[in-house]
Design brief:
This protein has helices spanning about 25-35, 75-100, 110-125, 145-170, 180-185, 215-220, 240-250, 265-275, 295-300, 310-315, 320-325, 340-350, 360-370, 370-390, 390-414; strands spanning about 5-10, 40-45, 55-60, 60-65, 105, 125-130, 170-175, 225-230, 255-260, 285, 305, 330-335, 350-355. It contains 15 helices and 13 strands. It folds into 2 domains: about 5-200 and about 390-414, Rossmann fold (3-Layer(aba) Sandwich); about 215-390, 3-Layer(aba) Sandwich (Rossmann fold), CATH 3.40.50.2000. The strands form 2 sheets. Strands 3-4-2-1-5-6-7 form a 7-stranded mixed beta sheet, sandwiched between helices. It has a 6-stranded parallel beta sheet with strand order 10-9-8-11-12-13, sandwiched between helices. The protein is α/β, with parallel strands linked by helices. Strand 9 (about 255-260), helix 8 (about 265-275) and strand 10 (about 285) form a beta-alpha-beta unit. Helices cover about 45% and strands about 15% of the residues.
Length: about 425
């Protein structure tokens, strides 16, 4: 069979920014590798910084930016919500009327997926849904005011109902992990139309030889042992155990620092907790950094931490930071309540597994500190495993194969 050049339209729910156009998986697979294989990729993203639909280029990808407005009032949010999806619907009709696409894919956004289902019927093209538990379903957990809690809860229930319809109508589904796939199978969705598409990493960006000197100099880390956490500091992350664990480790090894890289609605609390424990001078909160600078922070560290609170949403997730740490040859301390972390660490030998508790994390960190040779071997193991199993280039090839098989069966069915 001759090689087929595909035309793919991707709808992303993530806000566009010039530094990071979309989530790493989208940027790498759909913004880098699939276009480099010769496929034409066009994607649609919300954007806060434009007041009209705008078309830009990213690498070889055409991106349509749809205006997205934030508003403090409930009524304003509803108006902006409706306006956004009307604009997205009109844009998709214009795109599909102008050019023939082979398939349309939506990442997590169930409302955009309803539009995609209509496009599928109107233009007779397959619809693929990439599913990693939409964050919006869990917004009600964060709201304290009763009326906002109730509205968010109801909104989440509506989304969950639509999501069932979307999963049923999709021609193929990419769940984010095999544990999520198992849940979908239990709910009655056929395994034959699913393939887990977990998080991965680009070894060229997260290069094991990245220079660490600029970060160590910037934060005066020259002679210190450095622990690192990279990620959102959100209340649902429940990161208190990491601060307490560092406090225990600091008592044993005063010449140690903790880099907390990222930002979120729990950062102030974590900073206050550090002050209460008397360790604030040895914990560095960097704030939000560019995704492209993260390799420098990882390179500057000795041990990396992958704490994930054992909530349901995390138990079926795929932790990006774990693979970013591993591909840069760093030993990892990760909690075992997250199935993918447990499986990857056991299979690769890239670090130690602990409980999601302060004392357990502290013991895990001290185990690595007390055995530098084993820690080095763990880092080497992690690098080898990720290169073999979680390179985005390899994953893009798997996605490409699924698309070609889907189109072949779709044509035969028609």
């Amino acid at each position: 069979m001759s090689y087929r050049r595909l035309k793919l339209c991707l709808i992303s729910p993530n806000l566009y920014s010039p530094e990071m156009p979309a989530r790493p998986a989208v940027t790498e697979i759909y913004g880098n590798y699939l276009p480099s294989f010769g496929h034409e990729v066009r994607w649609i993203s919300p954007c806060l910084e434009t007041k009209e639909i705008k078309m830009i280029k990213f690498n070889q990808v055409t991106i349509h930016l749809v205006p997205f407005y934030k508003h403090s009032s409930i009524l304003g949010q509803i108006v902006n919500f409706v306006r956004y999806y009307i604009n997205e619907y009109n844009l998709l009709l214009k795109i599909c009327n102008t050019e023939k696409y082979d398939l349309i894919q939506v990442r997590n956004d169930v409302f955009a997926a309803l539009i995609a289902i209509y496009i599928k019927k109107r233009y007779n093209i397959p619809f693929v849904f990439q599913y990693s538990f939409p964050k919006e379903v869990f917004k009600f957990e964060k709201n304290r005011k009763y009326y906002r809690y109730l509205l968010s809860y109801l909104f989440g229930m509506v989304q969950a109902s639509i999501q069932k319809h979307v999963l049923k109508k999709a021609d193929f589904v990419f769940p984010i992990s095999k544990w999520m796939e198992s849940e979908l199978i239990e709910d009655g969705y056929p395994k034959s139309k699913m393939m887990p598409l977990p998080m991965g990493v680009n070894p060229e960006l997260f290069n094991i030889n990245t220079d660490s000197s600029k970060i160590r100099e910037r934060y005066c880390l020259t002679d210190s042992t450095v622990l690192l956490y990279v990620g959102t500091m959100d209340k649902l992350r429940l990161l208190d155990p990491i601060i307490h664990a560092f406090s225990h480790v600091h008592e044993v090894n005063p010449n140690i620092k903790l880099l907390m890289v990222g930002d979120g609605n729990d950062r102030l609390h974590l900073e206050e907790l550090s002050t209460e424990l008397g360790i604030s001078k040895d914990i560095i909160f960097t704030g939000q950094v560019s995704y492209f600078d993260i390799p420098y922070f990882i390179s500057a560290s000795n041990i990396c931490l992958s704490p994930m609170s054992p909530l349901k949403i995390n138990k079926v997730s795929s932790p990006t930071k774990l693979f970013e740490y591993m591909v840069m040859g760093k030993p990892v301390v990760a909690n075992e309540e997250i199935p993918e972390q447990k499986e990857v660490i056991e299979e690769s030998g890239a670090g130690v597994l602990v409980k999601f508790q302060p004392q357990s994390f502290a013991y895990g960190i001290l185990e690595l500190l007390n055995d530098p040779k084993s820690s080095q071997v763990m880092g080497e193991n992690g690098y080898k495993w990720v290169i073999k199993n979680r390179s985005y280039e390899c994953m893009a090839r798997q996605v490409e194969t699924i698309y070609l098989e889907l189109l072949k069966s779709y044509c035969n069915h028609d």
